[in-house]
Write a structure and sequence with these properties.
heterodimer; A: 540 residues; mainly alpha; Cytochrome C Oxidase, Chain A; 0% strand; globular; B: 210 residues; Four Helix Bundle (Hemerythrin (Met), subunit A); 7 helices; elongated
Chain lengths: 540, 210
């Protein structure tokens, strides 16, 4: 090989569409996920903006109530199953987990490619309900029985799509667990692993142990619709409460599948831009496991009003409060990491700080919902919608965008325009809070979620919220446009460590990384992954 | 991977052959299978508790003799696949293949017996959608639905297991599975034991509890 051929990075190594969609390189698979996820995110966001537009005024503005029901169901299905469940693990986990562990790929590269293909098939199945059959589902993303068994819309295809997507999630989780156990670089013990790897480890276990339950439950819904048996329909002997239990046994842990990887991102971004070691490494690592474990036993808090014994409700409520403890431990540790750090305010740090602010609002409103008496009032109101979006979008979504800005120079070997990125962040941040904070107030006032029409006294907060959705849309477009424009910028010399203070192993290799990830043996800091006192010198 | 910059390659590569990793991956996959059936066991338990009499009445329709026969068939097949793993570890390729073929044959016997059991039920109109089924009390119809759903899902696993065993036989014949490299046989064995074990639970739940 010529010397130029030897210096090819993973983006240049092979050309053509087939070298991408059949690639077993974890970096390329991560990018395949990124492009698919962003596409579906934009579709989901558009549906969300349409919903807000309909709610601008009371009464009918744009479309019929039935269409509205289908739009919010599609918004939920796309955002949950196609965007936020895979989001950080499938994109940044795939791309960076092997590099951060100092290896060249995941344990099962071909399985990794298969999981992307399964994702694509599931996505096509979900989207096909828009065009074929009797229209997309109108049940809400929870597919609650007995309505999901009786509605004429194409629920069968939608639940089968979610079933298939579950497989993709399981395979990714399985791959990561084995990779973390088998492929850490020599000298990297479990307690010297970066916190992002810890977060992915905890997430992967939830993916593995919770997803099969929803798989089988959704298959039962499909079977009930096709064969007409009375599994969940009470008029023919079924028990709809049982469906809710089975659904939330998965879907509550699933919110930790969405949130834990985001915690990992924040734990990476903060030390880099504070230029100091993370505060409470072990506390952050083990609190991830604690959240994964306790998070398994709190599903009943979604069902406080649907018929459960008082004892069960009290137990679920106490357990729900308990999950808040490890989560709060993380927040305190992050804030303590900033304390006396030499802080460098860059776009990724802004997203991390935005995350902490919004996640606190989301998390604390979650504790409010976990309280039995308060939940009776707030259940199925806009307070729940506000809470969920603060946690998932304000939390995980912002962490996702933060990670995109953090690792952008490593992935593509270029830098975006930082000033525009900062402006986009502030527009996004303001738009986000304008959009979702009024929902909390609407919930306290008593406006139910999923309603097509509302009373005149709810008009003002709804107007502010819809206005916020426009601001946020501008912020999103500016952010994505700036990142895309970054591809076209003239390639500057991007070093191995463009932020200057990155300490985990991905900053020791070239930007973009070579096909085999490292061109020389990575060196571990002496005392753990964030040991800034013994930071290995990185030569270009 | 092919292109290594300046010839450097990492010691711990995801493209190395790693028998430990393969087995760990298989175990993790088995956990997901347990939970898949676990969900069904919960549903069974809830509806059995809600309709004890109907479940009892309906269970008399099943043929205990055939169920017992199939249980024995599966247990023996688990033994033969375990023996074939020992055979390949000892380097006796021929014996390993013979034992794998026996396992495959037993799987086929299981499916044939299952076929006759199912067709007898369907002949009696007990399948969801048929006349007799429609007029059953809700508890009994749930029993038969769960019977078909759970044994059907299990039979699907038997078929997949059979395909895997056939692949192992082919690869052993080709010499790709041998004395030094037998993870594939081990993983097929692990999967087959799981399929067997799930039946050990299904059998009493549907045929024996009176």
């Amino acid at each position: 090989m010529t010397s130029s051929a030897l210096n090819l990075n993973y983006l240049q190594a092979k050309k053509g569409i087939f070298s991408w969609i059949f690639s077993v390189d974890h970096k390329r698979i991560g990018l395949l996920y990124l492009y698919s996820l962003i596409t579906f995110f934009l579709v989901g966001a558009t549906l969300g903006i349409l919903m807000r537009l309909e709610l601008l005024n009371p009464g009918k503005d744009l479309f019929e109530a039935q269409t509205y029901n289908q739009i919010f169901t599609m918004h939920g299905v796309i955002m949950i199953f196609l965007f936020i469940i895979p989001s950080i693990p499938a994109v940044f986990g795939n791309f960076f987990l092997p590099i951060m562990l100092g290896t060249d790929d995941v344990s099962f590269p071909r399985l990794n490619l298969l999981s992307w293909w399964i994702y694509v098939i599931g996505a096509i199945m979900a989207i096909s309900t828009l065009m074929f059959g009797d229209g997309p589902a109108d049940t809400g993303w929870t597919f609650y029985a007995p309505y999901s068994v009786k509605t004429g819309t194409n629920v069968t295809m939608a639940v089968l799509a979610a079933f298939v997507l579950g497989f993709s999630s399981i395979l990714t989780g399985l791959n990561f667990i084995v990779t973390i156990h088998r492929l850490r670089t020599p000298g990297m013990t479990f307690l010297k692993m970066p916190l992002f790897a810890w977060a992915l480890y905890a997430t992967s276990w939830i993916q593995l142990l919770a997803t099969p339950i929803i798989g089988i439950t959704l298959l039962m819904i499909a079977a009930e619709r096709v064969l007409g048996v009375g599994l969940f329909d009470p008029s023919i002997g079924g028990d709809p409460i049982l469906y809710q239990h089975l659904f939330w046994i998965y879907s509550h842990p699933a919110v930790y599948i969405m949130a834990l990887p985001a915690f990992g991102i924040i734990s990476e971004v903060l030390p880099t831009f504070s230029n100091r070691t993370i505060f409470g490494y072990k506390a952050i690592a083990f609190s991830s496991l604690a959240i994964a474990f306790v998070g398994y036993f709190v599903w009943g808090h979604h069902m406080f009003t649907s018929g459960m014994s008082g004892t069960a409700r009290i137990i679920y409520s106490i357990l729900t409060f308990m999950v808040a403890i490890p989560t709060a431990i993380k927040v305190f540790n992050w804030v303590a990491t900033l304390y006396k750090g030499s802080i460098d305010v860059q776009p990724p740090l802004l997203y991390a700080l935005g995350f902490i602010f919004q996640f606190m609002i989301g998390g604390l409103s979650g504790v409010v919902l976990g309280a039995l008496a308060a939940d009776i009032h707030l259940h199925d109101t806009y307070f729940v919608v506000g809470h969920f979006h603060y946690v998932m979008f304000g939390g995980t979504g912002f962490a996702f965008f933060g990670a995109l800005h953090y690792w952008y120079p490593k992935i593509w070997g270029r830098m975006y325009n930082k000033l525009v990125a900062n402006i986009a962040f502030f527009i996004l941040f303001i738009g986000f809070n304008l959009l979702y904070f009024p929902m909390m107030i609407l919930g306290l006032m008593g406006m139910p979620r999923r309603y097509y029409d509302y009373l005149p006294e709810f008009h003002l907060p709804n107007m502010i919220s819809t206005f916020g959705s426009w601001v946020m849309a501008i912020g999103l477009l500016l952010m994505l446009g700036n990142l895309i424009a970054g591809f076209r910028r003239k390639r500057e010399k991007i070093g191995r460590n463009p932020w200057g203070t990155g300490i985990t192993l991905e900053w020791q290799t070239l930007s973009p990384p070579p096909v085999a990830n490292f061109d020389r043996m990575p060196v571990l800091p002496k005392d753990g992954p964030y040991d800034y006192d013994h930071k290995p010198e990185i030569k270009e | 991977m092919m292109e290594h910059i300046s010839g450097f390659s990492l010691p711990n590569s995801g493209h190395n052959r790693d028998a430990e990793a393969s087995k760990m991956g298989m175990w993790l996959f088995l956990f997901t299978e347990l939970l898949l059936f676990g969900g069904l066991f919960i549903v069974y338990m809830v509806y059995r508790t809600l309709n004890p009499e109907s479940f009892l009445l309906a269970s008399f329709e099943l043929d205990v003799a055939l169920g017992t026969f199939n249980t024995v068939v599966l247990l023996v097949s688990s033994m033969t696949i375990a023996m074939s793993i020992t055979a390949i570890q000892l380097g006796d390729t021929k014996k390993s293949i013979l034992l794998l073929c026996t396992t495959l044959l037993l799987a086929l016997v299981f499916l044939v017996v299952k076929y006759f059991e199912w067709s007898a039920k369907i002949h009696h109109g007990l399948f969801p959608g048929l006349d007799v089924y429609k007029n059953l009390p809700p508890g009994e119809s749930l029993f038969f639905f769960l019977y078909f759903f759970m044994t059907g899902l299990h039979a699907l696993h038997i078929i997949i297991g059979g395909i895997i065993i056939a692949v192992v036989i082919y690869r052993t014949k080709k010499g790709l599975v041998n004395k030094d490299k037998y993870t594939l046989t081990e993983n097929a064995g692990l999967y087959w034991h799981l399929v067997d074990m799930i039946w050990i639970y299904l059998f009493p739940l549907f045929y024996l509890i009176h």
